[in-house]
Amino acid sequence: MAGVRTRGENIRQFILTNVEEHPKDLAAVTAKEFGITRQAVNNHLNRLIGQQSITVEGNNRNRIYRLHPLVEKVESFILSGLEEDRVWRNFAMLILGVLPDNITQILSYGFTEMLNNAIDHSQGRSVLISIKKYPLHSEILILDDGIGIFRKIQEKFHLNDERQAVLELAKGKLTTAPERHTGEGIFFSSRMFDRYAIYSGGVHFSHEWNKPEDWILECDPLESGTAVFMKIANNSSRNIKAVFDEYSSEENYSFDKTVVPVSLARYGNESLVSRSQAKRLLARIDRFKRVILDFEGVEEIGQAFADEVFRVFRNQHPEIQLQAINTVPDVKAMIDRATSSQ
Length: 342
Known about the structure:
The protein is α+β, with helices and mostly antiparallel strands. The protein folds into three domains: 2-67, Winged helix-like DNA-binding domain superfamily/Winged helix DNA-binding domain (Arc Repressor Mutant, subunit A, Orthogonal Bundle); 71-241, Histidine kinase-like ATPase, C-terminal domain (Heat Shock Protein 90, 2-Layer Sandwich); 256-339, no CATH class. The protein has helices spanning 2-18, 26-34, 38-50, 84-96, 101-121, 149-157, 162-171, 185-192, 240-246, 275-282, 303-316, 329-339, and strands at 54-57, 64-67, 71-78, 126-133, 137-144, 195-200, 203-208, 226-233, 257-261, 290-294, 321-325. Helix 6 crosses helix 7 and helix 11 crosses helix 12 (329-339).
C-alpha cells in the first residue's frame, strides 16, 4: 500500500508542477508520463480539485485546469507615509504564513525593496498589493499608480525612449536618487526569484531563474504606474547570500559583477553593427570590475560594433574583465577578429 500511495503522490505532484504549462492537455501529458489511463488521471485531478489545489473550467472536451491559491489577499495602501517593513510584517508575511526561512528571506527582500521603490520613486498616490500562496509556489504583485519606472529613468538619464531603460536596469547600479539608493534592489531581486517582471507603459522587463537573459521588451500598455511581479517555489534551495556572492567581490563584498543582455542594445530586429550601438551597450559598465556580455539571441555583429567593444573599450579600461558568452560562430569570429587587432 505504501508503494501505491507514493506513486499516487508522485502523480499528483507532477500534475501540480505542470498545470501552468499544460492547462489544456494536462490529463494527456500526465497519462503519457506515468503510462496510465486517462480515467486514472481524472481520479487524481478530481482529488486535487476536491482539495482545492486546482480548479477546472469548461466542459469535458475543453477543460482548462489552473492552480488554486491556498491563500489570496489583495489590498490597497496610500503611499504617503507608508513604511515597507511594517506592510511586510503586518500584511504580507501574515498571509504567506509558514515557509522555509530562505524563502521567507527572499520574499521579504523583494517585497520591501520593490515597495520602497514605489514609495520613494513612483510619485504615485496609492499602491495595490496582491499576495498569493499556492501549494508549490508563492507570488507577489505590487502595482502603483505613479509616473512609471521606465518613463522616469528615460527622463532622468535623457535616454532615447523607455525601451533603453530596460538595458540600463539589466546592468544594475541604476537609481534616479543616488543619495538615497544604491540601485541594487531590482538587479538582485530579479536574480533571486524564479520569475521576476516589471511592466510599465508598453515595456516589459523580465527574467527567469536559470534561463538565458530572456528580457522581453513589448507588452500590452499599462495605463499608468508600474507593476512588479515576483514568483518563487516554496521549496527552492536558493538563498540570498548565494545570489549576492555570485555578483560580489571576494575581497570586500562589493557589487562588482554584472551580466548584460547584448540583444537589448538593438531596436526590433536591427543588426548590431554600429559604434553608437556599442556605446549604448557599454554605458555605465565601467562601474563594474567583471562584465559578462550575454549574446543569447544575437546571430551576427558588425566589425565596428565588435571593435568598439572588444578593442577600443578594452584598451581604455584594462582593469575591467570583459567576457562574452552564448556566442554563435559568426559572432565569435568577429570578436576574435577585433581582439586580434589589439
